[in-house]
Amino acid sequence: MILSLINRAVRWNRRRRRTTILAFFAVILAVLPVIACGSSQPAQTTDKNALLVVTTTALLADLVRNVGGDLVEVTPLVPPGTEVHSFQSTPADSVAISRAALVVSNGGELDEFLDPLIQGSIADSAVWAVAAAQLLDQDETDPHFWQNPLFTVKYVAEIRDGLTAADPENTAAYEENFNSYKDELTKLDFDIASTLDTVDPALRHLITFHDAFGHFARRYDWEITAFSASDGSEVSPGAVVEILEKVRDQGIPAVFAEPQFRADVLENTAQEAGVEVGLIYSDVLDGEVTSYIDMMLFNAKSLARYLR
């Protein structure tokens, strides 16, 4: 009889264990769809109902803020003060992209290396705007189209369209902000031209480390000589010799360096040629210049100051 009781107790414990295990898996199966559904849907807005936007660069983030105003919260993947070509993404960047309602990239050689990250992370419901979409066919080698403020108007038009697609309820506000900022960019173009007009035409020659100012040169009729390619790659000895010859032959009083690049070669060349080194910005915002308009005005004033 004792053995019979023991066997009954063992069978009862086994049944209870099986019931507990089955109940556990039933809970897991019920919860999994909720977890999966939650992870596939981006936040897209903040607690304050601002639209979440991710840009590849800080400069693009500034343009988005001017069009989006208080309706957007913008995060650049490449932090201010960081050169885009040296940027290394992290898992946090993928998360930020997955939560965004709008992703804005420049396009072209500037940030196309981030395309796979965006493609693999962006939500199905999100919008991806390429700011230079209207301009890429014009120049496949120099993606720094914003160096011409009139091209920047095309950038902000693409941004406006992206914001409108992601948030159609606020179309009127985005259109109003776009028109207001477009007027500022038109004035910026005039102010730059007026500042550069103070430079002797014979000295309108920008000599710099980084070949990122071609669109600027064509807009304002300047000559450009750069030590390196548009991605800031290494400087060849032949380029140094060429720069020295140009500086000496043309009597150029200054050459220009950017804060994100080591300018040892440029500074040594300038010292050998007996000229000054001025500061100029191409695509990096920092504590000295915090907006696109500030950057462009800073550059014009720096050129005018050093080349008079």
State the main characteristics.
alpha/beta; Rossmann fold; 308 residues; disordered N terminus; 3 domains; 10 helices; two-stranded parallel sheet; globular; 4-stranded parallel sheet
SSE blueprint and pairings:
Elements: H1 2-40, E1 51-55, H2 58-68, E2 72-76, H3 91-99, E3 102-105, H4 115-121, E4 127-130, H5 149-166, H6 171-196, E5 205-210, H7 214-220, E6 223-228, H8 237-250, E7 254-257, H9 264-273, E8 276-279, H10 292-306
Parallel strand pairs: 1-2, 1-3, 3-4, 5-6, 7-8
Helix tally equals 10
The largest β sheet comes out as: 4 strands, parallel
CATH architecture of the largest domain: 3-Layer(aba) Sandwich
CATH topology of the largest domain: Rossmann fold
**Head-to-tail CA distance between termini:** 112 Å
The strand line-up of the biggest sheet is 2-1-3-4
Task: Give the strand tally.
Answer: 8
> Low-confidence parts lasting 5 or more residues at pLDDT below 50?
1-40
Q: Which sequence of SSEs, written as H and E, runs from N to C?
A: HEHEHEHEHHEHEHEHEH
What fraction, in percent, of the residue positions are helical? 40-55%
Counting structural domains, the number is: 3
How much of the sequence is in beta strands? 5-15%
Oligomer: single chain
Let me know the average pLDDT: 84
CATH hierarchy, class of the largest domain: Alpha Beta
State the secondary-structure class: alpha/beta
Shape: globular
CATH superfamily of the largest domain: Nitrogenase molybdenum iron protein domain
Over all CA atoms, what is the radius of gyration? 28 Å
